[in-house]
Amino acid sequence: MRDTRSAAHARYQQHAAAFRGVRLWPIAGVLFCLLLMSAPIARSGDQTIAEVTVQGNKGTDAQLIKNVSGLTPGQTLTPDILQQAIHQVYGLKLFDDVRILGEPFGGGLRVIIKVVESPRLGKLVFKGNKEIKEADFKLDLKNSQTLSPGRLRDAERLIRRAYREKGFFLVEVSSRVAPTSVIGEADAVFDIKENKPVGVEAVVFEGNTQLSANALMKKMKNKPRGLLKSIFGGGKFNREKYNDDKTAILDTYKKNGFLDAILVSDTIILDEAKTKVTLRLAVSEGTRYFFGKTTFTGQQIFSEDKLRRALKYHPGDVYDQERFEESIANIYTAYQEDGYLYARVTDETKTADSTVNMTYEISEGVPAHVHLINVEGNVKTKDKVIRRELAIYPGEVFRRSNLMRSLRNVMQLNFFSNVTPDYKVLPDGQVDLAIKVEEKPTGQVQVGAGYSGQDKLVGTVSLGIPNFLGNGQDANLSVDFGKRRQSYSLGFTEPWFLDTPTSLGLDLHNTARTWDEPQTPGTNDYAELRRGFSLRLGRRLRWPDDYFRVYWDYRFESVNYKDFSSEYGTYNLSNPFSYDKFTWPQTTSSTSLTISRDSRDLPEFATRGSRSSYSVEFAGGVFGGQWTYRKHIVTHAQYWPVWKGLTLAPVWKVGLIEGGAGLTSVPQAESFYAGGIRSDGMIRGYDDGAILASAFLDTSSAVRMQAHAPLTSLLPGAAASGYMPSRLVRGRALAVMNAEMTFPIVQQQIHGILFFDAGNVWLNASQMAPFSNMYSAYGFGFRIAVPGMGTLGFDFGIPLRGIPALGIKKGKIKPHFQFGGSF
User: Fold this and answer.
1) For residue 585, is the peptide bond before it cis, meaning its omega torsion is within 30 degrees of 0?
2) What is the C-alpha separation between 481 and 306, in angstroms, rounded?
3) Which residue, 366, 439, 553, 578, has fewest beta-carbon neighbours within 10 Å?
4) Contacts of 469 (CB under 8 A, 6+ apart)
5) How far apart (Å, rounded) are the C-alpha atoms in residues 668 and 636?
6) Angle of CA points 796, 797, 803, to nearest 5°
7) Residues of 339-357 as b/e, b for ≥16 C-beta within 10 angstroms?
8) Which value, to the nearest 10 degrees, does the dihedral of the CA atoms of residues 176, 182, 183, 188 take?
């Protein structure tokens, strides 16, 4: 009997050790001995369960606990059944402690399942995690769940796994429960010590005789960190990306003609310190294949020559899986362009030695016609605003290029964050198109303030509604108020006047401004008052292509100068052209013609296409007014996709003004100045309008200039010797180049920018030297699309040439802030 009891006791201890945190407490020593000796007593029928009860449960149903335990009246109690009952109840993950007690009852045992319920989870608290976000742990713990030890251990394992997949093999994770002020509730606190991530010390390839290790590693994410790997332990090892790396190796082989290449084995070798890994990969390259003969069958609509032009390979080229798949896509595109949506291309490849011969079997079907076009997703924008931009119509043969052009035109409205197509095939072979749009906030309300050296502090309130009442019209109202500048402007544009592709617009403006000339900062030299209006008329063209537009504009403006400083009033060259005898206000009456072409894919953050324009303005003559001149401006912007979202965008702008004799035939406001972002030529790194032309004038010129001193930025100077010293004035010639490299941080929301600007202003065209005498700067910035505000721009320019007279130093960084895009 003693041996039996000892064996039973040993089994009991083994079972108990398997359940950490679970304790077995019999109610009395005699009953404890009886339970330990359950095997022989059970055979005599003395240890039968008479009743099962539950104690300690507050929020958990007692019947649930009984059912899960498996203990029922009439059952013979054995150590195995006892252990299984504890295991199953504890497995509910609802309790911190589970005990089973027994007491005599009705000729058998009353079994008492005594539990201590786990607290409810308040919140999760993570401490020490810097490299991995909490969401990446993917824990299944939720508020109000019971916080059992088992659930905490499961959470620890998930956190460790997340770190190991990121290369942090030395991470230390512990958990604890922190009671809250709410009874029965506790926070789960995870203390994380990340330690250093494991670095990739080396990648070793075996069996690669045709492709070098560098060629194979080029597409891998896990690889050593260049020449300094021995010092820094290589790049971080990421287990998640390791499978992608193995796929990339095989893709590299397929791209180079090795269709039979396989990965024989891969091994991750962790060093003893667990700080570095060596990746060892064995490959079997197989035979290198080349493109052979290509045959087409079944085609009737297209000639074989046209289909061959769609291929991206030639016989004898090394076989490339990507070029093969691109060729099939091009064949489909060719058929879709002519409406053959149901065309099918079946490819069959046959290898002969190291040559891959292709056969394309084509089933052309019949062309599909467009039945209906539905517009979906527009809440504010009216259907007609979208439909009039479409280049595809019901009843026409479906053409892919027309569909893509339609999507581009709708996006160019800049009312939508996304435009996607969908189609449904009808039983008769026609298709119903759906143009699905996602509207974005287009109303722009701006309330703010700005500061500049010229205008000082200026408050701004503006309201812009680019999609007024959902009709696609543009309305705007802007008010600037400050001590040195007050302005009001109102504008309205109807882009489809009388439901034709003709735009009609009207602008009104009134601006009062006090000027400081650059060469006498801190003094109020004169006040300027501008009032005027402009009437605009535009039309979309179909020739040379439908990207062209032409605009006509008539502008009338009255400019009045007053409150001249004492220097202007006292200086006199005894000439009949004194400013005191000049008639104020001065008026400008002009008309202009602009021809533009815009093929950009997006109105903001464009990635391809171009935008060009030429405008010429005629003032005076038959149009009246005091000023007579001709003004020419040419601009061109090109957008080239470079690599994975990087876009190179160079922009050129050249301006030239022709007029009568002397600089005074052109008003100051129409002459060119550059620098900063609020000027005729954007050159970041310099103050707004800081780049002017240099004038060296004789006395007679000085007389003419003095007559219109406030219009030419000239200040009085000594003229007794027959000449005036060199001064800075606005010029008649301008050349500016801006080059930007943009890259998305968040698609269509946040973009980064690297830029280089260069340009200058000259008195006239004969002095232009755009390749030698230029002001230039480089820098960086970013653009943020903010709903309800438009696009915010932040640029930081570093000038490569200083302007000592204005306090602009070479190499000193200059910040710029703007609403809207750079170009």
Assistant:
1) yes
2) 65
3) 366
4) none
5) 25
6) 140
7) bbbbbebeeeeeeeeeebe
8) -20
The greatest distance separating any two alpha carbons of the chain, rounded to the nearest whole angstrom, comes to 139
Amino acid at position 16, single letter: A
Gyration radius (Cα) of the chain, Å: 40
Which amino acid is present at 815?
P
C-alpha distances out from residue 229 to 16, 159, 204, 217, 226, Å: 50, 28, 14, 15, 6
Is residue 722 predicted with pLDDT exceeding 60? no
Proportion of the chain above pLDDT 90, given as a percent: 41
Mean pLDDT in residue range 186-208: 88
Question: Tokens 């032009």 — which residue?
Answer: 309
- Higher pLDDT: 654 or 450? It is 654
pLDDT of 131 over the 90 cut: no
The beta strand positions in 75-214, using DSSP E, are 95-105, 108-117, 120-127, 172-179, 185-193, 199-206
CA distance 68 to 483: 81
d(CA 118, CA 147): 6
Give 15's pLDDT tier (boundaries 50, 70, 90). Answer: very low
Which of 167-171, 230-234, 327-331, 556-560 tops mean pLDDT? 327-331
Give the sheet arrangement for strand 172-179, strand by strand.
120-127, 185-193, 172-179
Give the residue, 786 or 104, on which the prediction is more confident: 104
DSSP letters along 777-798, please? EEEEEEEEEETTTEEEEEEEEE
- Going from the C-alpha of 194 to that of each of 138, 197, 674, the distances in angstroms are 17, 8, 53
* pLDDT for res 631: 94
Phi-psi region of 206 (alpha: psi -120 to 50; beta: other; left: phi over 0): beta
Closest CA to 693 of 760, 771, 631: 760
Helix, strand and coil content of the chain, in percent to the nearest 5, comes to 20, 45, 35
Q: State the Cα–Cα distance between residues 788 and 60, nearest whole angstrom.
A: 52
CA distance to 15, 188, 198, 249, per residue, from 267 (Å): 38, 37, 15, 15
User: For the packed helices 79-90 and 29-36, what is the interaxial angle rounded to 10 degrees?
Assistant: 100
pLDDT in tens, 551-569: 999 999 988 877 766 554 4
- Could you tell me if residue 45 is left (phi over 0), alpha (psi between -120 and 50 degrees) or otherwise beta? left
Confidence band of 575 (pLDDT split at 50, 70, 90): very low
Can you tell me whether residue 800 is helix, strand or coil? coil
User: Do 784 and 752 touch, CB atoms closer than 8 A?
Assistant: no
Q: Omega into 544 within 30° of 0, i.e. cis?
A: yes
Distance between CA atoms of residues 440 and 378, nearest Å: 10
Q: In Å, what is the CA distance from 230 to each residue of 276, 281, 287, 502?
A: 10, 21, 36, 67
Structure tokens belonging to residue 793: 């721009």
- Give the per-residue pLDDT at 383: 94
One-character DSSP codes across 216-256: HHTT-SS---GGGHHHH-SSBP-HHHHHHHHHHHHHHHHHT
**Span of 473-482, 634-643, 786-795 with lowest mean pLDDT:** 786-795
698 burial level (CB within 10 Å; 0-12, 13-18, 19+): exposed
Query: Stretch 135-146: mean pLDDT, rounded?
Result: 80
Scored b (16 or more CB within 10 A) or e, 794-817 reads ebbbbbbbebeebebeeeeebebe
| Number of residues that this document lists for the chain | 823
Q: Three-class SS of residue 702?
A: helix
Buried b (16+ CB within 10 A) or exposed e, 370-394: bbebebebbeebeeebbeebbbbee
Name residue 781's amino acid.
G
